[in-house]
Amino acid sequence: MRVFRMQRYSAIALVIFMTIHMIVVHYPPFHIDFSRIIDRMAQPIWKAIDIAFLFSVLVHALAGTYAVILDWDEAHPYKRTLAVAGFVIGIAAFVYGTITILNFQPPATAGILP
Residue 59 half-sphere exposure, CB side, CA atoms within 13 Å? Predict the structure, then answer.
């Protein structure tokens, strides 16, 4: 039941984060403007939002994968192993993604047109 709830709560978070993402990145010019992304990634609040977005994506994806695998009857003896593997993969992906987001520095030439 915990996995079911995690999947549902992360789905709600994904709706919120995807809406923010679509409005901020795609909506105004109707195409991706990399200079706006560079400016946005230089601000700590947007880094925090992106980290929360990453967390909700990982929780949703891994909980869904776990639920789908457990629908297969032969997987039940390996339930604990699958849970630990998903947890380890999730932690590793979250740490890697968080480090990538936090270490992003806009190039010195950002915003300067050639």
Answer: 19
C-alpha 68/C-alpha 2 separation (Å) is 15
**The domain 2-103: what is its CATH number?**
1.20.1300.10
pLDDT of residue 32: 66
Sites in the chain below the pLDDT cut of 50: none
* Contact predicate 46/23, CB 8 Å: no
3-state secondary structure of 104: coil
77: Cα separation from own chain's centroid: 30
**Structural contact between residues 64 and 11, judged by C-beta atoms closer than 8 angstroms:** no
**Where do the structural domains in the chain lie, given as residue ranges?**
2-103
